[in-house]
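A.,

Following up on our hallway conversation. Structure tokens first:
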């Protein structure tokens, strides 16, 4: 049985972008450090699956850019089941904060593109 991606996964790259903005604001106001979703990747299996073997020796893989999240989502079927469940669990707290904003910005971009296409 393969586990499908949750519908919210389509918005995870946007959520990571929103988290980047929040981290920047947090650093600017000196109110704490950065917060990112992460994986425990002791044997670098996840890095090998994603083609990121050369990105540090740390046992944790921090998802600190939308590109990393997009690569993870592209390789979703090839990830181990425990990694998929772990990512879904770790993204839950970020979804609670940023999901509605990510949906809004995505839909707004689509709407603006449609209006531009109709007006041209």
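Then the amino acids I'd put at each of the 120 positions:
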């Amino acid at each position: 049985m393969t586990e499908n991606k949750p519908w919210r996964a389509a918005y995870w790259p946007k959520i990571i972008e929103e988290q980047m903005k929040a981290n920047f604001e947090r650093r600017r106001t000196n109110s704490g450090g950065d917060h990112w979703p992460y994986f425990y990747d002791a044997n670098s299996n996840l890095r090998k699956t994603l083609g990121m073997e050369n990105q540090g020796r740390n046992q944790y893989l921090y998802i600190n850019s939308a590109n990393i999240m997009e690569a993870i989502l592209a390789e979703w079927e090839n990830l181990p089941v425990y990694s998929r469940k772990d990512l879904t669990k770790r993204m839950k707290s970020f979804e609670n904060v940023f999901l509605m904003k990510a949906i809004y910005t995505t839909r707004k971009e689509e709407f603006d593109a449609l209006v531009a296409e109709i007006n041209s």
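The longest helix spans residues 81-119. Curious whether your intuition agrees with the design.

B.
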